Amino acid sequence: MAQGSMSYTSCNAWSIPLPLLGTERFIGRRFAGGAKELRCTNGGNSRTDRWRHDGVVRASMEDFLKVEGTKKIDVSPRVWLSLVDAELQRGNEKQALELAKQLPAFGAAQRVPQRTYTLEELRLNKIEPEKFLSPVDTTLGSVRGNLQVAAVLLGVSAWKILDLSQYQLLGAVVLFIFLGTLDQIVNGGGVEALLLDTVGRLVSQKYKERVAKHEAGHFLVAYLMGFMPKSYTLSSLDAFQRFGALNVQAGTTFIDFEFQEEVESGKVSSGTLDKVSCIALAGVATEYLLYGVAEGGLADINQLDGLMKVLGFTQRKADSQVRWAVLNTVSILRRHLNLHSKLADYMAAGKSVLECVGLIEEELVNSTNI
Fold first, then answer.
1. What is the rounded CA–CA span in Å between residue 99 and residue 320?
2. How far is it, in rounded angstroms, from Cα 354 to Cα 19?
3. How does pLDDT run across 144-155, given as a tens digit for each residue?
4. Which PANTHER family does its entry note (predicted)?
5. What is the rounded CA–CA span in Å between residue 279 and residue 276?
């Protein structure tokens, strides 16, 4: 990933009020001539100790903006989260990412050695590839079947009650098939997905929990591997209302401009590919660990497969990358199952991205096994 120092557009003075996650109150970043400082207050009493954790933070902006590589500046994560939020509110994703790199747990996941692993080695680590990489959504499949039966019964009932002719019934069937085909062509099956997901969430609490845990897996692995989450949705209806997307069942978006730049250049670094591979497989890995088999995540696997084809990977090289990513992702999730459960609850409750990140940082504070 690209690294370097950050810079702000010069101006005489400005301030952004932001709440912190604790009792502290961040009152602003001020740029005023030579008196540039980062300042916090606690209970209204302002003091000026350099980079302290007792509710008061002060530093020259020259030191604050001097980010060398991945060096972390020793400041409370609550301060960094507030600054990340400020930059995201301003639409400045590059600055937000540079600030996120200062969070202790961000990108700090320990990784298994990168080498070629055999299927037998995966099995020795209690991973069954055939259950892991072949997800079948039986819940929505059942919902689809029940809706089809209900549609047939409704059609028969309408035929009897309304005394429709055979030609009118045939016309209704043809119209139904046409609308379904049109949805597949225009929306990629988005209307059907919206209907199935909405009904599935209404009739199955287990389905709702599975989706939340699936997305929490993506969120957690992405953060620990060094991709900053930007937003998430746990239902097709929410995705449609927020983003106007009809073909999204659930999902998490990230600050990924660095990855997009690499893709556009046609050269994706091995480090970036490692991160993307683990993020793509994290939802499937989560379901496998919790339920013994994955239902969702087929689209994630297909997208990863498509990326490696675009990059010109041979089947052998692609298999090697996927096996490493499977082992690495499962290893990360196994270390943090309790944290993952709490994160899934946060996401199911609709907590903000920064609240979810705050949870991760709080749970992993002083951890030596991330």
1. 34
2. 12
3. 666 666 666 676
4. ATP-DEPENDENT ZINC METALLOPROTEASE-RELATED, OS01G0382700 PROTEIN
5. 5
Say if 368 falls within a structural domain. no
Pairing label, strands 25-30, 18-19? antiparallel
**Which run of H or of E encompasses 364?**
none
DSSP label at residue 45: E
Domain that residue 312 falls in: 119-138+202-363
Whether 129 and 44 map to the same domain: the answer is: no
Per the structure block, which two tokens stand in for 66?
């001097």
In this structure, what DSSP letter does residue 34 have? T
What are the backbone dihedrals phi and psi of residue 109, each rounded to the nearest 5 degrees, phi first? -60, 135
For residue range 1-24, what is the model confidence (pLDDT) as tens digits?
A: 433 333 323 333 223 333 333 323
- Is the same domain home to 123 and 245? yes
* 237 token code pair: 């209806």
DSSP state of 41: E
Same-domain status, 25 and 134: no
Query: What is the C-alpha separation between 244 and 54, in angstroms, rounded?
Result: 44
Tell me what percent of the chain is helix, strand and coil, each rounded to the nearest 5: 60, 5, 35
Q: CA 325, CA 336: separation in Å to the nearest integer?
A: 17
Residues in the chain: 370
DSSP run (H or E) holding 37: strand 37-42
**How confident is the model at residue 60, as a pLDDT?**
36
Q: In whole angstroms, what is the distance from residue 181 CA to residue 359 CA? A: 44
- Confidence band, pLDDT 50/70/90 cuts, at residue 131: confident
**Total domains, the chain:** 2
pLDDT above 70 (res 272): yes
Give the 3-state secondary structure of residue 168: helix
Asked if pLDDT for residue 316 goes beyond 80, the answer is yes
Note the pTM of the prediction, 2 decimals. Answer: 0.72
- What's the pLDDT score for residue 271? 93
In whole angstroms, give the CA distance from residue 261 to residue 150: 48
